[in-house]
Write a structure and sequence with these properties.
Chain lengths: ~230, ~230, ~230, ~230
C-alpha cells in the first residue's frame, strides 16, 4: 500500500507528529501547586526545565534533519514508510525519558535516568542512519540529483548516534555532564558545518520554479507548496 | 452543508487529528516518579510501552489507509463526512483502551483489558469498511478511474476487522498473545501485499502533472500540494 | 496588523487548534487504574465517554462551519481576527466543561454540570453568529458572489445558539436529557438541510480551476491547495 | 544545514507548535472532581480561567506576529532557525507559568507567580526583537521590498517587551492588576495601530498573483498556498 503515499503528504504528517511531541514536553514539568512557595518550587523543577529545553532542541534538530531528508525523496516504499513510522514513534516517546530525567537528575538514581535519556535520544538518531541507508540502497526513491549527496548524508548521519552514545557513557560518570553534552551536541548540529545533509540540496528544475517569485527562485529554495 | 467541504481540506483536518492521537499515547505511560528506582519502575511499565508501540502502529496504518482512501475521493457528501468524523472519534479515543491495557496487562484483570483493547481497534477498522461501502454505493464521490478499485478495496477492508476480532477472541485465552497478534497484523499490513487499497491508484492526468518535475510526474505520484 | 493575515493561513491555523481541541478531549476520560476491575471501572466512566462523543461532534461541526465560512472570506480585518481568536479560545476550552459533565452527570450535582456544559457549547455557537454578523456588515471582506449568501448564513447561524440554549434549559430538569438533546442537535446539523452555510457556495472562477483535473473542476469543489 | 529549510515549511512547523501550545493551556485548568459542588469549584478556578484566556491571546498575537514576519522572509539561515526554535520553545513553555499563575493568583504567594508569568511572556516577546534584529542585519534573508519595513518592525517590536516588563513590575504591587495589564496589552496589539509589522506588507509580484482569483489578487493578499 505504501506506493500510494506521496512524499509531501508523509512529510506533512511527520511534521505534525514532531511538532506535537515537542510541545507535549512541557506537560511533564509540574507547576508549583497552590499552597507551595513559588520560587523554591520552580528552583526544584530546574532539572525538568533543563530536560525540557534539551529535548525541545533534540526534536527541533530531528525536524530539520527530517525536512532535509524528505526534500530529496521522490517516492515512498514500504520500507521507508515503516522506518519513518519507527522514527516518529521514537520521537513521540521522548517525553517519557525527558520526564524521567527531570524527576531524577538531582536524586539518588540520577545515573540510570541520564543513561536512559541519552540512550533514547541515540535511538532516535539511529533511525536517521537507517533511513539514509534505505534510501542509498534504493536510489530510485531519490531525486536523481540527490543520489551522490545521500551517500554523504548517510556517512554524516553516523555522527549523531556516536555523539549521543558518548553522552550515554558520560552519564555513568556525571548525569548533569551528560545532559550538558547532549545540549552541546545539538547546538553544534544547529550552528556547525558538519550536520548531516547540510550540503544535500536538490537543484530546483526550471519548470517547478516557474510560478515562483524571481528572487526566491534564484535562491533555489521555493516553498514546498509552490512546487 | 457537506457539499462545501473540499476532500483535500477534510483529509488535512483528519491528518491533524490522527497525528495528535498518535502523539498523545505516550502521556499514558507514567515516568518513574522521583524517589523510585528508575530501572525497576521502567520495567514495570513494559506493558504500557508495548501498548504504546502497538497503538502507534495501529494509528499509523489507519493514517496510511485514510490517505489512500481520500486520494480517490473527489466529492464529500454528508454521509462521508459523518462516517469520517466517527472514524476520527474512534482513533482519537484509542489512548483510553491503550492506557487500560498498559495498566492491566500484567495484573489479575488482564483478560477484559485485552478484550477491550482489541475490540476498540476492531471498531476503528470497521469504520473503513463502512467508508468504502459508502463510497462504492455512491460512485460519483470517487474519481472515475478509482471506481472499480474501490470495490476491491471494500472487499479487502473486511480483512482488518476480522483479524482484530480474532485478536479480541484470543484475548480471552492469552492477553499478551492478543497484543502480539495485534502487532503482527499491523506489521503484515505495512509489509504485506494484502492491505486494503494497496492497488488502488488513481492515474494522474496530464494537466495535473504539468507543473511537476519531470521524473516525479513519471512516477505518477505528485505531492497533493502540487495538484 | 490584521491586514497582513491571509484567509487561507488563518483557516489552517484554526484547523490546527480545532483538531487538537477535539483530540485532547479523551485525556479527560480516566483509564481504569491498575488493581481495579476493568469492566465496572469502564461502566463507571460512561458519562465521560458520552460527553467525549458529544463534544467531539460539537467540535467537528464547528470545524465544518468554520471551513464553510472561511471559504467565503477574501480578506481578514482586525475584527474578524479577534472574533476568530475568541471562537478558537472557546472551542479549545471545551475539554473543561466536558470533563465537568463527565465527572458529575451521575452524581448529586448533575444539574449545574449539565447547565455549564450546554451553556459553554452555546457560547461557542454564538461566536459564529458574531462572525457572520461582522462579515455581513463588511461585505468587502467576502468574495463578491458570497455576499447574498452570507446574510442567509447569518440568519441560520442563530439556530445553533437557540438550540443549545434549549439544551441548557432542559438541563435544569434532566441533565442526561440535555446531553441527549445536544447530541440530537449535532446529528441534525450534520444530517439535516438547515445547517448554516449549507447553500453558501462560492462559484469557482475559470482561472482558479484551470490547473484542476477536468471532473473535479466540474464539481466546483477544487481542494484549497489547488487554488 | 539551515540553508535547506524553506521559509514556508518552517512557518508551517511553527504554526503547528504555536497552535498546540495554545490548545494545551486548558489542560492546566482542573475540572471540578466528582463529589465536589460544581459552581463553587468553578468559581475557585477563576484565576486559572483568566490566565488561560490571557495566555491564549498572548499565543494568538505571537502567531499573528510570526506569520507577518515570515511573510517577509525569503531565506532561512542558521541564526534565524536557532532564534525561531528558541521562540517556539518559549511559547511552548507558557503553559507552565500559566498554570503557576492559576494556582497562586488568589493565594499568599501571588506576587512571585505573577512576576514569573509576566517575565515569561516578556521573554517570548524578546525573541521577536532578536528575530527582527537578525533579519535587519542580514537583508538578503528578506524580500527586497520588505527591507525598509523590517527596520520599522524592529523598532516597534521593542514595544512588546517594554509593556510586558511594566506588567512584571506591576505584579510586585498587584498580581491581579498585572494580569489585567497583560490582557490590555494584548487587546491593544490586536485592536490598535502600533503593533509591530502592521504596515509591513510585501507587494505581491504579478507572476505570483497570476493564478489567483481577480479580486483576491487586487487585495494583494493571496493565500500562501497559492504562491
Amino acid at each position: 500500500m505504501a506506493e500510494a503515499i506521496a512524499p509531501g503528504r508523509l512529510a506533512a504528517f511527520s511534521d505534525g507528529v514532531i511538532a506535537i511531541a515537542a510541545t507535549l514536553l512541557i506537560l511533564e514539568v509540574k507547576a508549583p501547586p497552590a499552597g507551595e512557595e513559588v520560587w523554591p518550587a520552580l528552583r526544584h523543577e530546574w532539572p525538568a526545565l533543563a530536560a525540557y529545553a534539551v529535548s525541545f532542541l533534540v526534536i527541533g534538530i530531528a525536524w530539520i534533519h527530517h525536512h532535509n531528508m524528505f526534500h530529496q525523496v521522490r517516492r515512498v516504499d514500504r520500507g521507508l514508510l515503516f522506518l519513518n513510522l519507527g522514527m516518529l514513534a521514537t520521537l513521540a516517546y521522548l517525553p517519557l525519558p525527558t520526564a524521567t530525567l527531570g524527576n531524577h537528575l538531582t536524586g539518588h538514581d540520577a545515573v540510570p535516568a541520564a543513561v536512559f535519556y541519552s540512550a533514547s535520544v541515540m535511538v532516535s538518531a539511529v533511525w536517521f542512519t537507517l533511513l539514509w541507508n534505505h534510501l542509498c540502497a534504493r536510489p530510485y526513491l531519490l531525486h536523481p540529483a540527490a543520489r551522490e549527496f545521500a551517500r554523504e548524508a548517510r556517512r554524516r548521519s553516523l555522527l549523531g548516534p556516536v555523539c549521543y552514545l558518548l553522552a550515554a557513557l558520560l552519564a555513568f560518570v556525571s548525569p548533569v555532564g551528560s545532559l550538558i553534552l547532549n545540549a552541546a551536541i545539538i547546538l553544534y548540529f544547529i550552528a556547525g558545518r558538519r550536520s548531516p545533509a547540510s550540503r544535500v540540496q536538490r537543484p530546483i528544475p526550471a519548470s517547478a520554479a516557474g510560478s515562483e517569485e524571481e528572487d526566491t527562485a534564484r535562491d533555489g529554495e521555493p516553498s514546498p507548496d509552490a512546487r
